[in-house]
Structures are given as structure tokens and as C-alpha cells.
């Protein structure tokens, strides 16, 4: 089990230095037939975790078909980890919701396990999805058989890694691999025209970053584009990357200032008291002053929408137009279902049992959800800025509450995204972004 944990950890967190061609006519060498003279590994395949404990190479004395196969063997007992693997890195440039990795494997005297794995990273890079065949208990001595692993492709997928793994002593042969995208062979799968091989890791792009030091926090932000300023405020427990699907297009129309709320992402928080949306709003006011921005448009999602509303109430001179997604005025059953409130209570009870710093901050964030905000309909009725009030048809926020918010803001426009949830910016990114741009223009 310790070896499995170590394997999963390495497969998840490692960021390999290997880079392969992004050309559309790429040859994947799934049959392991192409082998450059003088190189042990089959062309296009890599050893993500090279170690003297395992040999990973191409062989011709045993194969399922053709003239060669991949081969993994433990040649020396491991002291820190005990697995060898062969992998391929594939750009997630295809239109599709699932990837299916198939391969034929043969093994001899495997006392640990053999398996296939699929890991999918986003642009950060951070693992968005990871699955393996560990539960199938593939071990011992077995003749050639085909194994398959099907994985959902996350909407923010940037890179996919497919691997065959041998844990512990034994020998493993791998041949005739195949990848299907939505059941269609990868060689003929439709390409995603919006895929960017050099996608920016929003929230982790130091070239566009800046910091503002406050009394008890340091705010991290990134700026993109030119034009009227547009401040992006994310939700509870999220970060700048939450707007991954919006920033590129918004930056074509506005000067986007994307900021990590205190304690989130790369922003720090040195305060000890309760977190409040009034505190977040005051942070944003100080950020704007530091950046010499007198007035800005604001897009706030969830908690960010709550903060945006408070800014429009308390600091109206700073707010030009405001767009909010999934915001609420108060944390009661008039705004949220019992199930959501009970889930937050359970989360609070759990974090109260933890003493580490990260859990204690999550406790403060969860408590915030249960105790805030404290806005009233009378207060938002005084908002003079135009406000776009948005929510998903299946939002966490009750639709009657969203409609009441819109009805009580004089210059408001209401949009309920059909079929979407609280996560419309991820679920329908183009529709959401176009809606915001049309309102802000």
C-alpha cells in the first residue's frame, strides 16, 4: 500500500520536462514499432520516473504483434519506491468528454501489480483527473490480454498522460496501445479549435502579476489587456484560475485585474478575527487606491458577487458597472436550501476537529458562508450602478432570491442560465463571457 501511495503521489504531482511536437500529424507509436537506434525507449514514449531499480525499454523477443513491444522489469529491489513505468504525454486538444486508454499486457512473476493509468493536468499544471486499474489486482503470470481504462476529460484539460506501470518484482510487456476519444480513435478524433498549446496559467503567471501589501494581508493580482478596468472577484475557496475561461476574451475588451481574495491563491492573510465580506470589500477598495483606479467595472462570482454588492453599497464612487453570478444577500433558507446550509454546518464541524493552519482557514471560510452576508433589500435598492444579476437554473442560490435581488436594484438586468448551475462560468464559458461583455460594453 505504501508503494501505491508513493506511485499515486509521483504520478499526480510530477511535472515532466519532456516536450513533444504539437503537430496535428503526430505519430503516437502506440504499437511500439518505431525505435531510434541507440535509444532504449520506443519513440514518443518516456520514462517519467527513471530509476536504477527498473529497466524500461523496447524489446523484440516478446510482443503481441509486429516486431517489438515495451518492456519493464525490476532489476534491483527499490529502497524508496518500487515501480517502473512507461508513459506518453498527449496534448488535450481534442473535442470530447472521455478518453479511453487500451493496451495489451503480458506479465511474468509479478508479485506487486501491473496497471494502466491516465492523468490529466490543467494549465497550472495541476491534476484535474487521475485514474488507474489498481483495483483489478493485475498480478502473477498472465498471457497477453487487453486492458482498458476510461476517464472523463475535465473541461480545463491541458495535457494527458497515459502510462503502463509495474510495481514490485516481475516482468511486464506492453503492446498495441490505443486511445479513443468519445469512442473514436485518436488519429481521427475531432480537434478543439479553442485549444491553446501555450495556455496561460491564470493565477500563476508571474509576468502579469503584482502585489499590494495591506495592514494584515498581501493581495496578489494579475493584469491583462487594455481599456476600462474590470475587477474579477472569485468565490469562496477559489482563486484567480476560477476565471480561466473568461480572462482571455475579457482582456480583449477591458483591462482585467484578477485578484486572489485574502488567504486564497497567492494572497496571504495575517488577520485572526472572523472573515467578512465587508473586510473583502475594504481590501478591494485599498487595492484600487494602490493601483490608482478611481472607478471600475466588477465581475463577482459567488462570494465575489457578495463582495461586489457590498462595494456598490458602501463605496458607490468606485463602482461603474457590476455583474454578479450566484450571489446572495443573507445566509438563510430564504436564499439557500436547507441541504446547502446543512452541508456547510457539517464542514464546520469537521474543520473544528483539525488543528493545522490550512484547516483552520477553511473553518473561517465555512463560518463566513454560514454567518454572512448581512445585506438588506433596502440597501441594494440604493445602488445606482447598473447591475447584471446572474444565476444558473440549478444554482445553489434559490431562484426566488436571485429574482428578488434583481427586482430590488433599480438599474438591474436578470439572466438565469438555462440548464446551468452555480458553476456556469465553467459549464457554459462562452455564453457566460459573452453575456458579461454585452452588459459591460
Share of helical residues: 10-25%
CATH topology of the largest domain: Rossmann fold
Number of helices: 10
Task: Return the average pLDDT rounded to an integer.
Answer: 94
What is the CATH architecture annotation of the largest domain?
3-Layer(aba) Sandwich
Structure, described:
With 441 residues, the protein is an alpha+beta fold. It folds into 2 domains: 2-185, Galactose-binding domain-like (Jelly Rolls); 206-440, Rossmann fold (3-Layer(aba) Sandwich), CATH 3.40.50. It is 23% helix and 32% strand. It contains 10 helices and 19 strands. It has helices at residues 2-13, 247-250, 277-290, 303-314, 338-351, 357-371, 377-380, 399-408, 424-427, 429-440, and strands at 54-59, 69-74, 83-91, 98-110, 113-121, 127-132, 140-152, 159-167, 171-181, 184-185, 209-213, 217-224, 229-233, 255-259, 268-269, 296-301, 319-325, 387-394, 412-421. The strands form 3 sheets. Strands 11, 12, 13, 14, 15, 16, 17, 18 and 19 form a 9-stranded mixed beta sheet that branches. Strands 1, 2, 4, 7, 9 and 10 form a 6-stranded antiparallel beta sheet that branches. A 4-stranded antiparallel beta sheet has the order 3-8-5-6, covered by helices on one side. Strand 18 (387-394), helix 8 and strand 19 (412-421) form a beta-alpha-beta unit. Helix 5 runs antiparallel to helix 6. The longest helix is centred in the C-terminal third of the chain and has 15 residues, at 357-371. It is elongated. The N and C termini lie far apart (56 Å).
